[in-house]
Amino acid sequence: MNKSLKIMITILVLLLIMWGIIFLVDYNRVSNFKEPIFVRKSEMANDGGSYIGYGLGYRVEVKKCITVENGIETEKIEMYIFNKVVAGAIAEIKVTDQNMNDINPKKYVELENLELDYDFAQMVEDRCYILTNSNAVYHLEELDNFIKNVENKNADEIRIIEYTIEGQPVITNLEYTGDKFILKNDWRRDAWAVEEDRKIVTTEYDASKYVLVKSETSSDITNLKTYDELSLHSIESDETVHICTYAEVKQDENEKFKIQFNKNLNGDEIIKILGREETDRYDYDIYSYKGTVNIIVNGEEMSLREALLNNKITAEEILEKAKKDANEDKTIIGDIYRDGGSTVYIYNDYSILKLNTLSGDGNYGKKDLYIGVPSMNINDILATYNS
What is the layout of strands, in order, in the sheet containing 286-289? Predict the structure, then answer.
């Protein structure tokens, strides 16, 4: 064995030993509910410290405030190799009066400070519970979490968006403090209402005299949706205060795949997932915007790039499903732009933008596909081509 080969083997062995030490340190820390040291933090969440950390060949997910029930906050740390959990720990932490405000911060901008041009994409981005006139439902899980917190006497709030017959948004804020319910109805965007009614109306209800109730009599809207009423009921009288329509969405068992969008506002705004030069299947590039994209195909999770390169899924299937979802009222076409036919589909946690502009790149215009945050704006995307 020559000297150069011995040096290379020695270096390789040393590197493996170093990697083993790094891995074992983080492994032991995660197993003992301590945050890892040798990871690069990414995909930070605005919930008190949740993040995903990437190490050498492994990732660690730190999840703060998974639930807060009966004064106990649950947190979790897990280490993954090839999407398999290899270490993890869960802790329950007693919530004190001092840190309750940190665990349950104000979720939304106060209605009084909210712009009148507050648009649909921002409503989705803010994780409001939204029920549209076409029966599309967004963030029902946020309403479910609110109901659960009220049941457990944990302070919380929910912002609800419903629409008038004419298509004007009416915003309802319901806050539960533990002692009372604070209901705010914002009618300022209802262009069909008389001027004196276009205002915010605030009403308070004593939580010892009113309970939050979801009706048990459901009405079927489609084979995937049922409607109930969510309201405050007086314990002492027959008074009922309507809050909103509760639209339950059943899972479509025939779905072949599901997109998992991971928001990352601290990283690069635009990341190329797959270039047209890498495959002869597409004449356009595929990008993510303000996050990364994974996809679950037949129960297996992988990056969208991996799925596209290995023909697990095609971009055409993603677009066809978006079009089908829009037709079946599972989502909304945010807009069809008058630029040749660019289209945006807005889901709960992400949006899909397929460009089809008439001018720009050569004689073919822009045809690229973007998957990004719900508030992704076509003008922001097009501006990057000229920068």
Answer: 270-274, 286-289, 369-372, 351-354, 343-346, 332-336
Hey, what are 334's tokens?
A: 């945010």
Residue whose C-alpha is closest to residue 126's, from 138, 113, 112: 138
The kind and range of the H/E element at 263 are strand 257-263
pTM of the entire predicted model: 0.60
Domain co-membership, 239 together with 111:
yes
Same domain, yes or no, for 301 and 364?
yes
Say if CB 65 and CB 53 are below 8 A apart.
no
Do the Cβ atoms of 284 and 368 come closer than 8 Å?
Answer: yes
Task: Read off the pLDDT of residues 314-329 as tens digits, 9 standing for 90 and up.
Answer: 999 999 999 888 877 6
Structural tokens at position 302 = 């992988």
Residues 67 and 16 both lie in one domain: yes
Give kind and range of the element (H or E) at residue 199.
Answer: none
Give the residue from 56, 52, 64, 62 showing the smallest Cα distance to 23. 56
What is the CB neighbour count within 10 angstroms for residue 138? Answer: 25
Overall number of domains in the chain: 3
Q: Which domain holds residue 307?
A: 257-385
Same domain, 118 and 227: yes
Tokens, residue 73: 């906050």
Lowest mean pLDDT among 38-42, 113-117, 201-205: 38-42
Query: In the structure encoding, which two tokens stand for residue 211, read together?
Result: 């309970």
| One domain for residues 86 and 135 | no
Domain boundary among 215, 249, 283: 249
Are 235 and 197 contained in the same domain? yes
